[in-house]
Amino acid sequence: MNTSEFKFQTSDKKVENLSVTWQTPSNIALVKYWGKSEPQIPKNASISFTLNNCHTITSIQFNRTSESSEADFELFFEGKKKDDFKPKIAKFFKRIQEYCPYILQYKMIISSKNSFPHSSGIASSASGMSAIAMCLMSLERELNSTLSDAFVNKKASFLARLGSGSASRSIEGPLVVWGNHPEIKESSDLFGIKFPYEIHPIFENYQDTILLVDKGEKQVSSTVGHNLMHDHPYAENRFIQANENLEKLSVILQNGNIKAFINLVESEALTLHAMMLTSNPYFILMKPNTLEIINKIWKYREKNNSNICFTLDAGANVHVLYPHSEKTEIELFIKNNLAGFCQKNQYICDSVGFGAKPL
Ligand code: DP6
C-alpha cells in the first residue's frame, strides 16, 4: 500500500506559535467496520452518515521548542487536565510521526470538549481523533502553503484512521465510505471518501435520534472486540457479507428504495452484535432496554407503515433513523413511547451533517 504521498516533504515557512480550533462530528455506520489488521486496515469497507449535533471541539496551541524524540503535549478535557486519555493520544502521535515529523518540534496544548454528555456511551473517538487530525493539518498547511483543500481532507482522514478507524469517516459528509471496494470508485483502506454518487432526496437530511440506554463504560472496548474477529469462526463470511451489503446499499442510496434500506441497515446492526455474541470470549453489549426499544420500533413501523428503523454501534444505545418527512410523528412516538427506556429519559436529536468545520 502506497502511503508515500502522506509523508511531509518540505516547509516553505517557519511557524513559531499557532493556535487552531476545529469542530468535527461523530458518525454512525450503516455498514459496519468490525475487524481490522495492522496498521488500522479494515477487513471490509464501511459507510456512515456523518452527524451534525454530536461533535467534538478541539483547540491545539502549538509552541515551537527544540526537537524531541517523542511528542510533547498536555491534554485538557472539558477544562480539566486529563492524564488518563494521554496514553491513547501518545500512541496516536507515535503512529503518525513518520507522516508528520514536525509535531516533534512543538509543545502542544490540546483542549477538547464534546457536545454530547460525558460518558453517554456515544463513541467519542471518531470525533476526538478527527478533530486532532484537522488541527495538525492546519499547522501542516501553515508550514507548506501549497497544500490543496482536497489533500488536507484526505490526509486528515488518513491520520484520523491511525487514531481510530471510524474517525477516518468524520472529516466530511453526508455519507463517507472507508475501505477499498471495487464498486466505489476512489475508495481506499487508507482514508475515507465522500460517497461518490448522487444520493436520492429521501436520504437527504436524514434524522438520527440517539436513545441513551446505557451511559456507563462499555464492558468490552472496540479495540478488544475488533481483535476477537481474528479467530472468529464466522469472520471471513462476515467480511464478504459486509462488502456485498455496501454494494447493495450504494444502489439503494441512489434509487431511494427505503424498505430495502431499512432491511439492510437493521440487519447490519444485528449482525455486528451477533459477531460479539459468537466471539470467544463472547460478550453482550445490548441491554434489556435495547431489545425493548427494537421491538417497539418494529411494532410502530408495522402499525403505521412508517419508515422508522434502528441501528446500533458497539454499545447499548439505539440510533433511531428516519426520513425528515416523518420527523413530527416519529419524534412524538420517541418522546411518548421510547424515552422511558432511556437512562433518565435522555436522548439526543441529531441529523446528517457535512463534516469538519474550522472555528
Ligand atoms: C461498531 O473505530 O471505535 O462503531 O479503530 O479500534 O478505534 P478502533 O475502533 P472504532 O470501531 C468502530 C466500530 C463500530 C462500527 C463502525 O463505526 O463502523
UniProtKB/TrEMBL annotation:
Lineage: Bacteria, Pseudomonadati, Bacteroidota, Flavobacteriia, Flavobacteriales
Gene Ontology BP annotations: isoprenoid biosynthetic process
Name under which the protein is recorded: Diphosphomevalonate decarboxylase
InterPro entries reported for this sequence: GHMP_kinase_C_sf (IPR036554), Mev_decarb (IPR005935), MVD-like_N (IPR053859), Mvd1_C (IPR041431), Ribosomal_Su5_D2-typ_SF (IPR020568), Ribsml_uS5_D2-typ_fold_subgr (IPR014721)
The Diphosphomevalonate decarboxylase-like N-terminal domain, residue ranges: 25-183
Residues annotated as domain Mvd1 C-terminal: 210-335
One annotated GO molecular function: carboxy-lyase activity
Pfam families in alphabetical order: MDD_C, MVD-like_N
Organism, as annotated: Tenacibaculum caenipelagi
Keywords: ATP-binding, Lipid biosynthesis, Lipid metabolism, Lyase, Nucleotide-binding
Database matches in PANTHER family: DIPHOSPHOMEVALONATE DECARBOXYLASE (PTHR10977:SF3)
